[in-house]
Design a protein that fits this description.
With 106 residues, the protein is mostly helical. The protein has a single domain (6-93), classed as Phage gp6-like head-tail connector protein (Hypothetical protein yqbg, Orthogonal Bundle). 48% of the residues lie in helices and 4% in strands. The protein is built from four helices and two strands. Strands 1-2 form a two-stranded antiparallel sheet. Helix 3 packs antiparallel against helix 4 (84-90). The chain is globular, with a radius of gyration of 14 Å. The relative contact order is 0.16.
Length: 106
Amino acid sequence: MSIVTLALAKAHMNVDGTADDELITLYIGAAEQWLSNYIGRPLADLDPLPDDLKLAVLKLVAFHYEQREAVAFSVTMTMQLAPYGVTSIADAYRESWFGEAATDGV
């Protein structure tokens, strides 16, 4: 089951109608999986899920919905795979190289 609902994602992005529901649902699943991979553990293991990680999922869904490309390039032509806000939130929960939990958001 998704951490973020379709209704919440659509509200976050101010999307009306149902034409893009399947696409947004795909982005929700992809964003949750990306974030789980980035922090090194399933989001379901964080119960309850901290609000900032839920916000990171919403930001990543919106990023994919707005960009619709594999990567975006900034003015300096560097690749951006996720918005800075997403990685800055997720870094607090990221596993260390040695498998020990980071600060768990503290």
